[in-house]
Each structure stands twice: as C-alpha cells, then as structure tokens.
Amino acid sequence: MPYSSCYLNLPLFIMPKPIALLIPISEHNIAQLYNCLTTKADAVVLMASSHFATSRSRFCTVLNALQPGITIIELDLPEDAENYMALHHFALHHLQPLSTTYQLELNGTGGTKVIPLAFIDSVTIGKVYYKGQQHTHLQCWQPGKPNSYHELALHAPISADKALALYVSKTVPGNPRANPFEQDKTALCLAASMWQQYADPTSPMHWLAAQLAQSAWADKTNPSTSVNLTIPPEQLNNPDWQAWFQGLSTFSQAQLVLVQNSIVVQNSHRTASLAYQFKRWLSGDWLEQLVQSWLREQFAADQLLCGVKPSGSGEQGDSRELDFICFHNTAGYVIETKVTTEPGQSANKMVQQLISLAENFGKLRKVLLLSPLFFQQKPDAHALEQFKKYCKGHNVTLCHDKNSLLSLFK
Fold first, then answer.
1. Which of 4, 289, 298, 401 is the most buried (most CB within 10 A)?
2. Dist. CA 329–CA 402, nearest whole Å
3. For residue 198, how many C-alpha atoms fall within 13 Å in the half-sphere facing its CB?
4. Is residue 205 packed enough to be buried (19+ CB in 10 Å), middle (13-18) or exposed (0-12)?
5. Residues 297 and 260 in one domain
6. Domain range spanning residue 333?
7. Contacts for 121 with CB less than 8 Å, ≥ 6 apart
8. Could you tell me if 25 and 47 are in contact, meaning their C-beta atoms sit under 8 angstroms apart?
9. How many CA atoms lie within 13 A of 134 on its CB side?
C-alpha cells in the first residue's frame, strides 16, 4: 500500500483560533474588567472614541497588572459611536481582518447600545457577554442561539484600589491614623455608645455637643486653651450624667474633666497635642471609626479604601480626603460621614462639599451618612423633607443608620 494512502481516511484536525474579546470602553469599565478576568481570552481589543482615550489607558494599566502578558489591541471607534453605519464600516475595516487570526467574542455591557447590534450584524461573533447592574454573574450566549445561554460566576472581587484606578489616574492614600484616642481599645465601644446618646435629646452627650458647638471650642481661630461649660442644675445630681462624663473623662486622658458643676474641655491648635487629637476624635473621627467597623462587616480589607485624596494639579479639593471608597457588584461608592452641620453651615452645604470632592474620583455613587444628632437638631419636618429632596435631586443617597448604609450592598 502506498505510504500516503494510510492517511486518506483520517479526520482533519484544525487548531482552534485564539480568542479575542472585544471591549467597548466607556466611563464605567468595571464590568468589562470582570469579563476579561472571568473568561481569560487570549487577547482583548479595547475600542474607544477619543473622549474615552484616557479611560482606555487606565484600563490597559490595570489589566496588565492583573493579567501580565495578555495581548492588548487598541482600536479607535468612530467619534459618532451611536451611528449604526459608522460602526458597521468600522467592523468591516478593523474587526473583519482580526477575525482571520482570532475568534471574536464581544462584551455587550460597555459603550452605546447600538455597538453590539452593529458588530453582530457585520462580523462573526462567537459569544456575547453581558453583566447587568442587578446581577452578580456574567451572562453568556451565542448570537442567534438562545438555547446556548448560560451564566458564569464572576472572577474573585477586584481590590478597591485596582477598581478605583479605572476612574482616576492617581490617588494619594490617606495617612495611617495616629490619633491615640482611636487606638484606645475602648474607643469603638464608646463610639457606638455616642451614636445611641445622640439619638436621645435628653442625653448628656447630646447636651455636650450642643454646648461645644456654641462655645469657643468650635471656633478654629480662638486661642482659648480651655472652655468651661456649666451643667444644668436639674442634671447636677443625675447619676447617669455623672457616670457618662466620668467615663468620657477617663477616655480623654484629662482633656475633658468633670469639676463640681461644670465640664472643662481643653482646647489647642497644635496638631500633636492631646487636646487637639481629642477634639478631632470627639468632633467626628469617632463616627468615621464606627462606620468603618460597619463597612468591615461587608467588605474585606482590600475592598475598602479609607481617607483617599485625589492627586494631580488642577483637581478640586485636593487638600481634602474622602472618608471611604468601596465597590460592590461592579458599582463604585464614595461615602462621607458627618456628625451634623458645622456652626453657621447649611445642610445643603454638606451635600455640595461631597459632590465637589467626589468629582475628583470619577462617576461613583455618592453616599452621605449623618448621625442621629443631625436629625435631632432638625425638628422642622418640612426643612428635613426639603433636604432629603435636595440630596435626591443631586444623586446623593442619604443614610441615617447602619442598616440603611449596608442595605446598599445587598
């Protein structure tokens, strides 16, 4: 038998083409990044109009860090990425040649709605992927074959710093907290107790906050080294008040002292002084510490950023920092905490400050959490309702307790 005839009836084996995942880049690209990490294509084709060129550059940086060595192909979309025919011609001129080397798959989450329609009509797409906002999985199907539909579990959560890097080119992590009062082992328990105290308008802490807000202690320019607050006569012999202030005095390392019928609170503008550190903690750091403990119940250590500052010239608010940034189900959140309004400040001003600072971090969802003291100090139901409408009108979610905060991440 001739040598060649031995192979005439053997099946022909064709090597499958490597897979190239088509990724339209937009202003929100976390879902697209999850698609890359979940499916592990051989190459990704990052397509962006000039408006999203910077977003594509950030995406490249993050993807290279998470999948070193992956082949990245960059293509420029038509400026009118909502024009079907422009996208059709783009697909014929740029994607069709790629299909000779790669099997093309498409992420349908990013970009304009017409992009996947035009691409599917123009070139052979093996699979389409889509990540819905309310879904915790990646949907997958072959075009024209509904029975091929299946769901893929997402890749392990992306760390918050990598997710944030899709929105901003550079950030400055907040300095590690060196406040000795935060380090105290009783601080968190005391912070939780203060939350409860502020919810009760007859509590000693509620009275103290109101008195301090009206005193020289609240004036950042006042040189007074201490303030003296007279306890109301009807509360002088109240055992609950005395027990609370004695406990707070012990915690304060003598920065707050109960003296006969008054409270003496030390005051200083020297940042290294105990008086200054206690003032910071009592004014609001206690609330950040408490809220951080709540968020730690929901997020792993690398899923939560604390005290993040924007970086770069010309950015607004670059001297301030956001309390928290986290990501859940491909959505990003900036969270700011406030005990209440500062003296002379309107409630709307807090919202404006949050919006101004959040602009430095891309289009993340904005959350403002206020302590019970704020709501106790706003007895005017109409004014409170107007404030809630103001928050909603500016796309700021207002939270008033632990449950309302953590429910955002269910």
1. 289
2. 20
3. 27
4. buried
5. no
6. 172-177+288-409
7. 88
8. yes
9. 0
Q: Which two tokens stand for residue 18?
A: 């490597």
Domain boundary among 249, 276, 303: 276
Structure tokens that stand for 151 in this block: 């769901």
CB atoms within 10 A of CB 185: 6
What is the mean predicted confidence (pLDDT) over 220-225?
Answer: 79
In the sheet that 137-142 helps form, which strands lie side by side, from edge to edge?
Answer: 71-76, 43-48, 19-24, 103-107, 127-130, 137-142, 145-153
Token pair of 222 as six digits: 């006042």
Q: What is the distance between the alpha carbons of residues 222 and 322, in angstroms, rounded to a whole number?
A: 27
- Shared domain for 194 and 230, answered yes or no, is yes
Q: Is the pLDDT of residue 9 over 80?
A: no
| Overall size of the chain counted in residues | 410
pTM comes to: 0.89
320 and 238 in one domain?
Answer: no
Host H or E run for residue 357: helix 347-358
Give the integer Cα–Cα distance in Å for 149 and 281: 54
Domain count across the chain: 3
Residue 1 lies in a domain: no
For residues 1 and 107, give the distance between their C-alpha atoms in angstroms, rounded to a whole number.
Answer: 53
133 and 94 assigned to the same domain: yes
Bridge-partner residues for 72, per DSSP? 44
Task: Quote the CA–CA distance of 399 and 366 in Å, as a whole number.
Answer: 11
Last residue of a domain, one of 156, 188, 217: 156
Residue 231 to residues 252, 259, 264, 275, 376, Cα–Cα distance (Å): 18, 10, 10, 21, 20
CA–CA separation, 230 and 262 (whole Å): 4
| pLDDT tens figures, 286-295 | 999 999 999 9
